[in-house]
Write a structure and sequence with these properties.
The protein is α+β, with helices and mostly antiparallel strands. The protein has 17 helices and 31 strands. Strand 12 and strand 13 form a beta hairpin. The N and C termini lie far apart (about 65 Å). The structure holds guanosine-5'-triphosphate, sulfopyruvate (SPV) and manganese (II) ion. Sulfopyruvate binds next to helix 7 and helix 8.
């Protein structure tokens, strides 16, 4: 097979000359093709069939133990000018980068099949969607791309019509962590990835295209490509408000995108609609609002912690047609991970007999599931709307034990951009390296912004112009802890209480108190009905620790300074304003307690 697009055929031929595959297969995305690939992977041991009664059409992939997460230290943005990649990216001069990685690609597909994977990021007929072609020698990558993108014949037809596409070349290579690179060439709309089969390193439509390359394109073209979920919240009157929310990797996007409302909310008629769980492309519409699409078609989600109690929707979508990576299995071959307390693991993520006494987790902390979004009970057809959905609020959140309150509303767009730019969060198992270290992760895009953060913040600020109705911006933190490490806020479904306040603020229908760091709810402003929350915990969640924030404002100044001389002056002024407001406040500013206590202290 080939295409009607000479540029595509030539590129495939060129790659084949370099990599020397035994066979070339153009993916059409059909069921028959998927069945055949699955059969081959079952034969080769790349996939293991899971229990067909409890988990029909579900499979497990065990990756190389050294290939289980993104590798930020081996990820490069190769712009002609080093400055354009910014201090937020590793950089190599493009010609040098090509030479280094092409040397690894030379002959690497000998004995293997080269798959040509045409894909579309976004609804196939959406003007906001963009296409790419990934060449890979991994059937596992093809299987993932089929669930995660609109892959195959319809995408190829659009590419042939448009005549352009993002080129992604991938080989799992020999999986040597010393010979592994994820390289981006934004000016050439090209990605080259060698030496890893793991999600973000290998499914090139996802972080490489839809964030690093797309963020760079979005800046040229006046839109935004963000590490955000998109969720629709329907109130009892039937109005739906869409929220886009950025949290760093493994910090709660999938869970917020498909949250189960608390019982009292369900009874009152609240509903939650999932549009996307990881990536959001948005641009101003003719009405001046921001309209967003989810460029993906599936979820590549964190397995550990997913349970009946935390995320019933996620669990319900994983009992058929799901691909698992690095989870444990039970004695009767069901998938297992930490948090699934009704089953017991027999084999760990590497297939070794599991001994609970070992004290190590059975599933890898970054074990993942891949499923089509159609599997999700809260899926909405609005995810297929070519125009996207209008965004009412943007939320930035991180994983912070201390300081950051449960929720803060930005005073205006510029303040919101400062909040996003100053985000900090504890690192997680989604990337190799230390877990639990607080680092700045602006807009949750530290590993994903394809250009200089200073230019990126200027781009964000540029959306504030006459004629627009921008979303309000908020900061949230579900991860405050006490000295014993216990979470102060129950999180998960209960987060809807915070989203309700956020939406009410957008509609001008809820109270807030002004503080130096922004607007916070008083206890009365939140619906805490039926929530068993310790009064002292609630106080802590809604308090502003002025001394701590003064230190934070200094740390933010140093953080911004690292991106000079490209930090927009408006952002520096905003930081000054924050510092001055904090200078005027003292001690800890507590929230007004509720006039009628709705919460009973819990025995902690
Ligand atoms: P990526 O796919 O890596 O971008 O991650 P994500 O942001 O989608 O994270 P996800 O929703 O998968 O959550 C990661 C981990 O955080 C899981 O183990 C969840 O159980 C846990 N988590 C999610 N939401 C909450 C919450 O509200 N509170 C607490 N305590 N934990 C949460
Ligand atoms: C993340 O790490 O933010 C993910 C998983 O969503 S990956 O696709 O590997 O990037
Ligand atoms: Mn992510």
């Amino acid at each position: 097979m080939s295409s009607s697009l000479p540029a595509l055929d030539q590129w495939v031929a060129e790659v084949a000359r370099l990599t020397s595959p035994d066979r070339i297969h153009w993916c059409d995305g059909s069921d028959a093709e998927a069945r055949e690939l699955t059969r081959q992977m079952l034969d080769s041991g790349e996939l293991i069939a899971l229990n067909p009664d409890s988990h029909p059409d579900c499979h497990l992939h065990r990756s190389d133990p050294d290939d289980v997460a993104r590798v930020e230290h081996l990820t490069f943005v190769c712009t002609p000018q080093r400055e354009d990649a910014g201090p937020n990216n590793h950089w190599l001069e493009p010609a040098q980068a090509h030479a280094r990685i092409d040397a690894l690609f030379a002959g690497c597909m000998r004995g293997r099949t080269l798959y040509v994977v045409p894909y579309c990021m976004g609804p196939i007929d959406s003007p906001l969607a963009r296409c790419g072609v990934e060449i890979t020698d991994s059937a596992y990558v093809v299987a993932n791309m089929r669930k995660m993108t609109r892959m195959g014949a319809p995408a190829l037809a659009r590419i042939e019509r448009e005549g352009h596409f993002v080129k992604g070349l991938h080989s799992t290579g020999e999986l040597d962590p010393e010979r592994r690179y994820i390289m981006h060439f934004p000016h050439e709309l090209t990605i080259k990835s060698y030496g890893s089969g793991y999600g973000g390193n290998a499914l090139l439509g996802k972080k490489c295209h839809a964030l690093r390359i797309a963020s760079w394109q979005a800046r040229q073209e006046g839109w935004l490509a963000e590490h955000m979920l998109i969720v629709g919240i329907q109130n009892p009157q039937g109005d739906i408000h869409y929220i886009a929310a950025a949290f760093p990797s493994a910090c709660g996007k999938t869970n917020l995108a498909m949250l189960i409302p608390p019982e009292s909310y369900r009874q009152a008629g609240w509903k939650v609609w999932t549009v996307g769980d990881d990536i959001c492309w948005m641009q101003p519409g003719a009405d001046g609002r921001l309209w967003a699409i989810n460029p993906e078609a599936g979820f590549f989600g964190v397995a550990p912690g997913t349970s009946q109690g935390t995320n019933r929707n996620a669990l319900a979508m994983l009992d058929r047609d799901a691909l698992f990576t690095n989870v444990a299995v039970t004695g009767d071959n069901q998938p297992w991970w930490e948090g699934l307390d009704d089953r017991v693991p027999a084999l760990d993520w590497q297939g070794r007999p599991y001994d609970r006494a070992s004290g190590t987790p059975a599933a890898h902390p970054n074990s993942r599931f891949t499923v089509s979004m159609h599997n999700c009970p809260s899926y909405t057809d609005e995810a297929e709307n070519p125009a996207g959905v209008p965004i009412s609020a943007i939320v930035f959140g991180g994983r912070r034990r201390h300081l950051a309150p449960l929720v803060v509303e930005a005073c205006d767009w510029t303040h919101g951009v400062l909040i996003g730019a100053s985000m900090a969060s504890e690192t997680t198992a989604a990337a190799t390296g230390k877990v639990g270290v607080v680092r700045r992760d602006p807009m949750a895009m530290k590993p994903f912004c394809g250009y200089h953060f200073g230019d990126y913040w200027a781009h964000w600020l540029s959306f504030d112009r006459p004629g627009v109705t921008l979303p309000k911006i908020f900061q949230v933190n579900w991860f405050r802890r006490d000295d014993d490490g216990r979470f102060l806020w129950p999180g998960f479904g209960e987060n809807l209480r915070v989203l309700e306040w956020i939406i009410a603020r957008c509609r001008g229908q809820a109270g807030a108190r002004d503080t130096a760091i922004g607007r916070l709810p008083d206890q009365d402003d939140l619906n805490l009905d039926g929530l068993d929350l310790d009064a002292a915990d609630l106080q802590a969640l809604l308090a502003v620790d002025a001394d701590g924030w003064r230190e934070e404002a200094e740390a933010i100044a140093r953080h911004l300074d690292g991106f000079q001389p490209r930090v927009p002056p408006a952002l520096l002024h905003e930081r000054e304003r924050l510092a001055q407001a904090l200078a005027a406040s003292t001690g800890t500013v507590a929230a007004e307690p509720t006039t009628t206590p709705t919460t009973a202290p819990s025995p902690a």
